[in-house]
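Hi there,

I know you've been waiting on this one. I reran it after we fixed the sequence typo, so this is the corrected version. Both the input and the resulting structure follow.
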Amino acid sequence: MEENPEEKWTYYGALVKTAKYCFLPYLVMQILGYLKEKRYRDCLPGKVVLITGASSGLGEELAHTFYKAGCKLILCARRKEELERVRTDLLATCSQETVFPPIVFPLNVADLNGMQEKVEKILEIYGFVDILINNAGLSVRGSVMECVDDVYIKLMMVNFFGTYKLTRCLLPSMIARKEGRIVCIGSVQGKFALPNRSAYSASKHALQAFCDSLRAEVADDGIKVTLVSPGYIQTNLSRNALTGTGKVYGKLDETTAKGASAKDVAAFVLKAVLRDQKDVVTAGLAPRLAIWLRSWLPDIYFEIMRRRATKERKSL
């Protein structure tokens, strides 16, 4: 059958028109985002930024990223010696720039009972915190049947309750000033769940809901809430993960090794803050597709996860 030239060009014309209508709003949003980022970058120097989990991995890179932007850092984690190492690296890296010496403040986010006292001491440093980055986190490798109760409790304490408590204790000072930003480092697994990650996904699902509620509640108080959901990152998260029995996993997963660099994710977090973004994902095509499938074609997503679970079970 001979192709009709008019129909062909009508078809291509429709495609071009559709692409134009889709691309133009995207382009406008990107331009507005860039202008907002450029405007607020000049306001960042001197801002007090508290980072949890700052002793390694993404937290360490966040420290470098925000320090180079001229922020006053309060570095928090359990391991004081590692925090001191990060502080020394920051001072050496930025020695030629106008900076504020980072403050090392040992903090265990799972110590809920002692959090209020810790926050009061934190507020004595500068009098306030402009940006709280809840980055401390823990992962797990184990099925629902393999994981003991303590593993679930520990994951929820570190990934969710610690974030909730620290945020809750700092909020009154932010509300009093009518300004502040809460940044939570979630995960794409807070938007969809993988087999053998139930405790981790559950804690990140909880964080997602917490941020959505908090964002609405404090908007009239001038406080912003940003949730960043990364995919796999090249850190020691998998090595430090727990097994179902609570032991340290101690292995670098292939997916983690091939993940995004912590430096790139830290830069993405900074951009999200400057652009006042509320809920953003930084991940490859597969996690984004999984999020889309979970929302729009859940039966297909469930079948894919079932097959994945079966494959992982056979490989053990």
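Quick highlight: The chain has a mean pLDDT of 90.

Best,
R. S.
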